[in-house]
Every structure is written in structure tokens, then in C-alpha cells.
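User: Sequence in, structure out. Go.
Assistant: Echoing your sequence, followed by the C-alpha cells.
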Amino acid sequence: MVLQKLFTKSEGQMVSADDYVEVDVTDAALAGNRMGKVGIKVDKLADFSDTDRVLKDLRDGSIVFLKIKALKDKDMGELKRSIERLKRTILAQNGDIVGIEQDWLILTPEFAVVHK
């Protein structure tokens, strides 16, 4: 009796499967991604110029695991410039940036959050 009340319209008619339309939200919400999957990229920051490539991956909707050891060993000032640029862009896009140990960063676009 209770289930019948849930599946009846206000006029007392039963609701049929024809009354509903199936909507595939993965096409609209994740346009450009393959079948609703999120890309995860592992990349290395060796020069300041690599920052552009990493930002492009983030804008395309990928999560990036970024190894910064090579640039840290090479030039600490350039590393700080790169991280500051990454941080500004990610925060402007409502993304997230988190340091893992001393040699890795996790960079996420707006739809992903790293719980700290």
C-alpha cells in the first residue's frame, strides 16, 4: 500500500517507465574526458619552462603528480618561481596544490580535492 502511494501520480494513475527520460550526465559534465574518466599524469619539473606544460595538463582536467627534485637540486630560486606560478594559477581556478614529502607535489583541478 505504501509503495503504491509512492508510485502513483496525483490523479491516482500508476507511474510507468515511459514517464522518465534517462540522461547521461557524463557527456555534459566531463566533456573532453574519455567516458567520464579523470586523467592522472606523473610529470617532472626540470626547468621553469616546464611549468607551462604542467598548467596545460591541469587546464585539460588532469590531476598531476609533479616531481620537483631535479629543479630543486639545480636552482632553488627557479623552483620557487615555478611553484609560485603554479600556485597562483591553481588557486585562480579553485584547484588544490599539496606538497608530498620534499620532492613531490600533487596538483588538482577544480573538481578534485586533496584532503589534508
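User: And one key feature?
Assistant: The chain has a mean pLDDT of 80.
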